[in-house]
Write a structure and sequence with these properties.
Chain B: One of its GO terms (biological process) is L-ascorbic acid metabolic process. The structure holds two protein chains of two kinds. By secondary structure, chain A is mainly α. Chain A has ten helices and two strands, in the order H-E-E-H-H-H-H-H-H-H-H-H. In chain A, helix 1 runs parallel beside helix 2 and helix 4 packs antiparallel against helix 5. Chain A is globular, with a radius of gyration of 18 Å. The model of chain A has no long low-confidence stretch (mean pLDDT about 95). Chain B is α+β, with helices and mostly antiparallel strands. Helix content of chain B is about 35%, strand content about 5%. Chain B has eight helices and four strands. The longest helix of chain B is centred in the middle third of the chain and has 19 residues. Classes of the chains: A mainly alpha, B alpha+beta. Chains A and B meet through helix 2 and helix 3 of A and helix 3 and helix 4 of B.
Chain lengths: ~220, ~240
Amino acid sequence: MRFCPYAHRTRLVLLAKGIRHEVININLRNKPEWYFTKHPFGQIPVLENSKCELIYESVIACEYLDDAYPGRKLYPYDYYERARQKMLLELFYKVPHLTKECLVALRCGRECADLKLALRQEFCNLEEILGYQNTIFFGGDCISMIDYLFWPWFERLDVYGIADCVHHTPALRLWIAAMKQDPTVCALLTDKNIFLGFLNLYFQNNPNAFDYGLSC
Amino acid sequence: MSGGSARSLGKGEACPPRSAIRDPRRPSDACWGQAAPERSHAGGSAPPGQVPEGLIRVYSMRFCPFAKRTLLVLKAKGIGHEVININLKNKPEWFFKKNPFGLVPVLENSQGQVIYESAITCEYLDEAYPGKKLLPDDPYEKACQKMVFELFSKVLTNKKTAFFGGSSLSMIDYLIWPWFEWLVALELNEYVDHTPNLKLWMAAMMKDPAVSSLFIDPKAFRGFLDLYLQNNLEACDYGL
């Protein structure tokens, strides 16, 4: 689905590694019956190869692509550094849920000061990591897997209406700016108006929301 | 003890403590990860020193199932290690410098590098140490193991809802329950103490009328199991 942050991770890795792929978008409010043969709960993203092997869970899919395909390695070679990136991912685990809750609250006209406070706290933890490491990216001086795994939620801060949550985290803002310079991130940036159009229809429960902006 | 020079102990003098006696034939317990039951380190204890060269240290707790994962991998791969147990009810302050979450297991090597989260420690050990690989080399087979692990973790942590299908008991809870009933019947249910959501779920299940009316009697179950393991043909009718 063109606007799903979890699927976005997988598309970033496919592009970053130059892996030839085709995309089949699923209407998440009206899933085709056959899709449950690909994933038991009908979730995305799911990878399927020519051997009919299926891989799901976005982080597992991204690691599979890094392992199975040649060329640029997104996870570090060093075993300890690999483990460190996976530990960093644990620090991130509350962010997807909190950003979604903020979006829903704002769209339903509800107060979300507590949620934003909680989100800012998570961002402070990430800020501390960048400060301690004194590097631009979470994996070092070059972009790597962990940056791509974090990125989709940061790209959505503005369109979700919570961009002010990074006001007190300068290193994180520098990271966001650096990410926007990355060719892979740029190539997959979604136009703000199209995203807003999708969100408007989604919150009106319009089943065509997922195809907003497509000309056919 | 050398013969001639040691002064003999006379009447009224204290017996030397057992701990002073070391058997020179046994390799150092710390070296080969013998589970020499070490008392846990608690609040107020001094931080441990640097990890000796050639060993990896695991911060653990003897009854923690998550730490058990790491110990299993260390044993299975024959990795020289030392164990420091942590009192999880009264954690030493220095432990939070090892893992900000204050949880076990944590690995620390002689370079001072620290790894936490049980699954991450296990994968690190498999990658960093030679010998039999526990995770498959094939990327798809490896991904399959991780997908199964994710499903299993969802059973263990069940973060979001009181029951596996939502806020009320449904089919999936009945489908999973029998294996946890075995834990209760074998009086092993203390093993869920460290997964509180699961413990709460078990307590809620035991209040369900269907579950409680069909609850296995622990004595009968143990009687059955004993006979069953002896391949006794009467096992299934134990207690009738």
